[in-house]
């Protein structure tokens, strides 16, 4: 749960700075957020969470 909240905060911060620097339009940001929201409610959520957890464990073991 802590990793999920941290990743949400990280991606939210990246999205904020992309919007602020005009590298990303508001429409594209909304589309990306909606895609992530709907992707989380599919069967792909579990493998993505497992992959993310594995990558975090691999990085912490370096």
What are the salient characteristics of this protein?
62 residues, mainly alpha, 3 helices
Describe the structure concisely for a colleague:
This protein has one domain. The protein has three helices and no strands.
Secondary-structure topology with pairs:
Layout: H1 2-20, H2 26-40, H3 45-60
Structure notes:
It is flat and about 35 Å long. It has three helices and no strands. The chain has one domain. It is 81% helix and 0% strand. The chain is mostly helical and 62 residues long.
How far apart the termini lie comes to 22 Å
- Spans of at least 5 consecutive residues whose pLDDT stays below 50 are none
Radius of gyration from the alpha-carbon trace, in angstroms: 14 Å
The DSSP helix count reads 3
Number of strands: 0
Q: Rough shape?
A: flat
**Helix proportion:** over 70%
What is the percentage of strand-forming residues? under 5%
Provide the succession of SSEs.
HHH
Largest sheet: none
Overall mean pLDDT score?
81
As for the number of domains, it is: 1
Secondary-structure class: mainly alpha
């Amino acid at each position: 749960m802590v990793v999920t909240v941290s990743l949400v905060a990280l991606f939210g911060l990246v999205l904020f700075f992309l919007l602020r620097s005009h590298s990303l339009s508001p429409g594209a940001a909304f589309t990306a957020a909606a895609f992530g929201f709907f992707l989380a409610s599919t069967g792909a959520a579990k493998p993505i969470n497992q992959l993310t957890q594995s990558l975090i464990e691999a990085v912490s073991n370096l």
